[in-house]
Design goal:
The protein has 489 residues and is an alpha/beta fold. The chain has a domain at 4-258: Amidase signature (AS) domain (Amidase signature (AS) enzymes, Alpha-Beta Complex), CATH 3.90.1300. 37% of the residues lie in helices and 13% in strands. The protein has helices spanning 9-18, 23-36, 48-63, 105-112, 160-167, 184-190, 224-234, 278-293, 309-324, 342-353, 356-368, 374-395, 421-425, 432-437, 466-480; strands at residues 43-46, 74-78, 116-121, 173-178, 193-196, 216-221, 264-268, 297-301, 401-405, 441-448, 454-461. Strands 1-3-2-4-6-5-10-11-9-7-8 form an eleven-stranded mixed sheet, sandwiched between helices. Strand 10 (441-448) and strand 11 (454-461) form a beta hairpin. The protein is globular, with a radius of gyration of 21 Å.
């Protein structure tokens, strides 16, 4: 048997079912790895006692003949999901010490299926970032290093702590959220699988909001099959979330090995972007060849409004963030900076509670929603968003899925991030259109750079067709044979 920390969720599930491993043994191994890996700062809050209690309860259920989809599997929870009785910070000072009295729907679903919570993972503050450098609790670190260069790399963002924990063998899987690429980009940077489901597939109830029309919870894991297993436990209709889709949750694992023979895979010409390293372009071509060798047909398509996706996103998302973050005022919960009068208390609480990136986006959002600018910016961005969705709808008339790069670069150094905010925002150039259209997207590790850092490919599918996305992703995974891992992990 492999070391418990090296197991995939599917492998651990089989060993647990066969009685060759207990959840307590598996959880104890993960707790040891979590403690040994604290230098990566992947977790904000560790919950070993809770994890052991949950593991023992899982073992009792199994001995009684009960087993959920994630029975006994230790996972990490991004610190954006409210967890009853456990601090939930969103990576921000303004929520430091906040302990919810309720459980998010996604985590409640997972725990009902037997999952074991190891702790809450680090993230960019309020999920605003592409490098996990904006957290109040310090930057999370990527366990990967470039060959011959031991300087720390970013894990991507905002779900960087979750990606680092999975890649660093400190959790078998983790939850993430994706507003503009915050599952897929860190998954690519850390050499793991990240799935952003269709908007509405997973409930947003109990997830700290960034941009409500874009946010979507999803799984991060070490294989496509594991992502399918996790999604099956996370998803489902929730009447408390008005954007939750009232649709049945299929068995995402059932046809994952059905292959891609006869499928038509779209290759968007607009994703050939100037300045993208040749290694990424070469990996994309290799991905096309892998799918063709398995019986798929590659079809060049056009997504003509792609070039407007980032500008539209960085109007819509800050506008919604400005509205959502208005609730953090020091009155009901979280940080309160006492002042002589109520207005000063509001101002000082927000000034000291929010970090620079959050303030930047709140200010941008307030500006584009203000009188005289709403029509010029926000309304126009929404119209562009509709055109982007139309581009995808047109593409689905001729193709079954779309293949693109996941990121425009490999993980960059933590001590040398892009010099200005716009350059940082360009990390999401391949992922943002998928969020604007509300579609599912999957990042699959598929290769390494010349200096040994992971690169990913992205599969995009039709709304609520995660099953096809996972099938294509599994075909890429099988062809790539990606078995590299961070040194020492």
């Amino acid at each position: 048997m492999s070391e418990p920390t090296d197991l995939t969720i599917a492998e651990a599930r089989d060993l647990l079912a066969a009685g060759e491993l207990s959840s307590r043994e598996l959880t104890e191994a993960q707790i040891g790895a979590m403690e040994a890996g604290r230098g990566l700062n992947a977790y904000i809050t560790e919950t070993p006692e809770i994890a052991l209690d949950m593991a023992e309860a899982s073992d009792r259920r199994r001995s009684g003949g009960e087993a959920g989809k994630l029975e006994g599997i230790p996972v990490a929870i991004k610190d954006l999901f409210c967890t009853r009785g456990v601090p939930t910070t969103a990576g921000s000072r303004i929520l430091d010490g906040f302990v919810p009295f309720y459980e998010s729907t996604v985590t409640a679903n997972m725990f009902a299926e037997g999952a074991v919570m190891l702790g809450k993972t680090n993230l960019d503050e309020f999920a605003m970032g592409s490098a996990n450098l904006t957290s109040y609790y310090g930057a999370a670190i990527n366990p990967w290093r470039a060959r011959g260069d031991d300087r720390e790399r970013v894990p991507g963002g905002s779900s960087g702590g979750s990606a680092s924990a999975v890649a660093g063998r400190m959790a078998l899987g983790a939850t993430g959220t994706d507003t503009g690429g915050s599952i897929r980009q860190p998954a690519a940077f850390c050499g793991v699988v990240g799935l952003k489901p269709t908007y509405g597939r997973c409930s947003r109830w109990g997830v700290v909001a960034f941009a409500s029309s874009l946010d979507q919870a999803g799984p991060m894991a070490r294989s496509v099959r594991d992502a399918a297993i996790m999604l099956g436990a996370m998803a489902g209709h929730d009447p408390r979330d008005s954007t939750s889709a009232d649709m049945p949750v299929p068995d995402f694992e059932e046809d994952i090995d059905a292959g891609v023979k006869g499928m038509r895979i779209g290759i968007p010409r607009e994703y050939r972007v100037d300045g993208v390293p040749g290694e990424i372009e070469a990996l994309w071509r290799r991905g096309v060849r892998w799918l063709e060798e398995q019986g798929a047909a590659a079809v060049e398509i056009g997504l003509p409004h792609t070039k407007y996706a980032l500008p539209a996103y960085y109007v819509v998302a800050p506008a919604e963030a400005s509205s959502n973050l208005a609730r953090y005022d020091g009155v009901k919960y979280g940080l309160r900076v006492e002042s002589d009068d109520l207005t000063a208390m509001y101002e000082q609480t927000r000034a000291q509670g929010f970090g620079a990136e959050v303030k930047r986006r709140v200010l941008i959002g307030a500006y584009v929603l203000s009188a005289g600018y709403y029509d010029a910016y926000y309304l126009k961005a929404q119209k562009v968003r509709a055109r982007i969705a139309d581009d995808f709808r047109e593409a689905w008339r001729t193709v079954d899925a779309i293949l693109t790069p996941a990121t425009p670069s490999a993980a960059f150094r933590a001590d040398d991030p892009p010099a200005d905010p716009v350059a940082m925002y360009l990390n999401d150039i391949f992922t943002v259109p998928v969020n604007l259209a509300g579609l599912p997207g999957l990042s699959v590790p598929a290769g390494l750079t010349h200096d040994g850092l992971p690169l990913g490919l992205q599969v995009v599918g039709k709304a609520f067709d995660e099953a096809t996305v996972l099938r294509v992703g599994r075909a890429i995974e099988a062809a790539a044979g990606f078995d590299a891992r961070p040194a020492g992990r």
